[in-house]
Amino acid sequence: MIENLAPAPSKREIASEKRRKHILEAAIACFIDKGFHQTGMRDIAARAEVSIGNLYNHFPGKHDFLIGLANMEGEMIAPFIEHLEVDGLANETFSAFLQDYWVIVSDKDVAILTAEITAEAMRMPDIAKQFLEVRRSLALALSSLLEKGITQGIWRPSGDPLHTANFILDTIECAADRQAMDKTSAQAQLAHLEVFLSSSLGVSCNN
Prior knowledge:
Arc Repressor Mutant, subunit A, Tetracycline Repressor, domain 2, 2 domains, 9 helices, globular
């Protein structure tokens, strides 16, 4: 049986998507530099070097930029989810995940953008839902890794794995925010964080 394949995008569609991504990246730069509320549509158009009409064709309003950011975050998180699902010892997979995820979330610009988005998401339930769905997909992958670690006899059982996964992500992200503000050594913070999280997960009595 031959599957129906979606037609390849046209050159025009490819160009439009490229322009849309360029505008979204310009908006991100504006949100980081000036803040979400302080940024106007004309600021974004100027940064992207496009006409205001072209801008509105791709993003009718600032709310649409938040939707675009949620989609972008989903794309950014996908490789982390794939990595958490690889075969191997759970503690080794977790250590690699922690180091890679820390590189992303401890970046100052990412921390600023996250703060801006979080504030808006709290005011807009539809935006919050999209970002929470992305976060839930990462937490589910991490909770599966925690269950694997318990099965492998690496970690001891400690309540609901999904709650534990969310607390771990909260801890990583909050530590990254603080590091971005006080400008301490990112690597030193990461080392202390890994020791703390490892001790929190505990060691199975079978080891």
